[in-house]
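Example record used in the benchmark description.
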Amino acid sequence: MFVEAVNFDVPPSLPAFERLAIILEKEQKYSDALEIAELSAFFKQTTISNRIIRLQNAINSGKIDKSTGNEKLQYHISDLKKLDGDFKNKILAIPLIIEKNKYDYNKTTDFVDDYVVLDIETTGLDYKRDVILEIGCLKYKNHQLVDTFHTLINPGMHIPEQTTEANHITDDMVKDAPFASEKLKELIDFIGNNVIVGHNVGFDIKFLITACCFCIIDYPKFTTINTITLAHKYLPLDSYSLDSIRKYFHNNDIAHRAISDCEMTAMLYQYCYEQNSKNI
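Model output (structure tokens):
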């Protein structure tokens, strides 16, 4: 489907992500794609590889017709040459993952004693166009906190005012923060083989998988527990948002920040675990 790539001499010792950036920077024929990609406001200051994905976002959002967009997309992907086959296949698979919503992960309601609790704060709600601002992840062994992962993320774009109002994360707070590509491998290693507990965890997983695809980072098939499902079973509430659950437990921590939301989610999970144990 994709035409043969141009042969560039790129040092194979460089990380795949940097090799991709060099290859695409050397071929100065993507101005049209960049103009289209600006419509999605995606990773404006990061490497050229993300600009390819922004073009795909523009196609998905209907801001460029699919026929023209796919033609441009194929043209730019055709510039990939000095890459190993496995890495090239990942690049070619990104549009398919996004277009067909192939976010493949396991879901379970079985309680476990060892797990990580994940919360991701983002610039918006659309995992195809918005990006990660903050990641929090708490690791529990036998329900005891044993390790913490936390980082702000530079989104490479202005944070919308309504987002800052919700999570209190400002442009100044992230201007010197690492990009997602610099922290995702560390997060994946931190998660390891643990079950991921999260409140509306599908939201976090889709952002995580999308970011890993954009940054060409391997990730496993995650297994998740959604605490919203558990809360419906064990809490008598009208609303099962984390804000409502926070009020139920009289928790006054700052909402919509990654670590505090992880802590609230962990409290909820452990409460549901105890309630389930009483019924056994």
